[in-house]
Amino acid sequence: MRKIEIYGLEGIPEIKPGDDLSEIIIEAVEKNGLTIKDDDIFVIAQKIVSKSENRIVDLNDVIPSEESIKIAKITDKDPRLVELILRESKRIVKLSKGHIIVETKHGLVCANAGIDKSNVGNVEEIDKVLLLPDDPDISAKRIKEAIEKKTGARIGVIISDTYGRMLREGQINYAIGASGVRIFRDYRNKKDRYGYVLQVKNIAEAEEVACAAELVIGQADESIPVALVRGLKCEETTLNAKALNMPEEKWLFK
């Protein structure tokens, strides 16, 4: 029987800059009555990675440029936030009232360069925002190697964030960083049960794992920023989450 198990790790404390996420995750696994095994995959919410890497910015310390002020008027956004969005981006893809879609320096096409106010700090700290990690793939690799060194288990790590999909309502989680996991499950040139040779089916497995883990991680006050996914195989590969970013020449919608 094929089976996948997903555990939401409870009891993880508020993360502060400089915290060792590998140690915190190992302790959380033990507190939840589990042990780390080979092929365990940890899906980690981007926010705690960014917090540990001190990617917190106080908008009161940001001086907006003339371009930021101009874009802020078009989009009806805080010019200080717009300034940060521009700093974190390669280019602007789309502007409209209430929306700034950019390609980030990581190659992600998303709203507001992934900058977020939710689950950053106390309500009184309304002017604090959280940037994405500098390089989520490197962050995932660092956490993976630290957990493996401390436990002796072969594991994988996915860093996840939330985004809205084109032409679909609602949001889901996706993989912005990955290490030690299979990025794609490629069925191309394989036959289906009736003998038809599949042509284009290349499943984004890392994305599916990130999305499934959100069911136990949540988005509000659940306080579960890490999920342990069990039942898949870890895989050392030259690919990382950047491979999931579709090059512009393949875009069907612009």
Roughly what percent helix? 25-40%
CATH architecture group name of the largest domain: 2-Layer Sandwich
**Cα separation of the termini:** 43 Å
- Percent in strands: 15-25%
Total number of domains: 2
Coarse morphology: globular
Number of helices: 6
What do you see in this structure?
The chain folds into 2 domains: 5-55 and 133-246, 60s Ribosomal Protein L30, Chain: A (2-Layer Sandwich); 56-130, CofE-like domain (CofE-like fold). It is built from 6 helices and 12 strands. The protein has helices at residues 21-31, 46-52, 66-75, 79-87, 136-151, 205-217, and strands spanning 5-8, 41-45, 56-58, 89-96, 99-104, 109-111, 128-130, 156-164, 171-179, 185-186, 202-203, 226-230. β8 (156-164) and β9 (171-179) form a beta hairpin. α1 packs across α5 and α3 (66-75) crosses α4 (79-87). The longest helix is centred in the middle third of the chain and has 16 residues, at 136-151. The radius of gyration is 19 Å and the shape is globular. The protein starts with a strand and ends in a 24-residue tail after the last strand. The mean pLDDT is 91.
Short description:
This protein has 254 residues and is α+β, with helices and mostly antiparallel strands. It is built from 6 helices and 12 strands.
Give the helices and strands, then pairings.
Blueprint: E1 5-8, H1 21-31, E2 41-45, H2 46-52, E3 56-58, H3 66-75, H4 79-87, E4 89-96, E5 99-104, E6 109-111, E7 128-130, H5 136-151, E8 156-164, E9 171-179, E10 185-186, E11 202-203, H6 205-217, E12 226-230
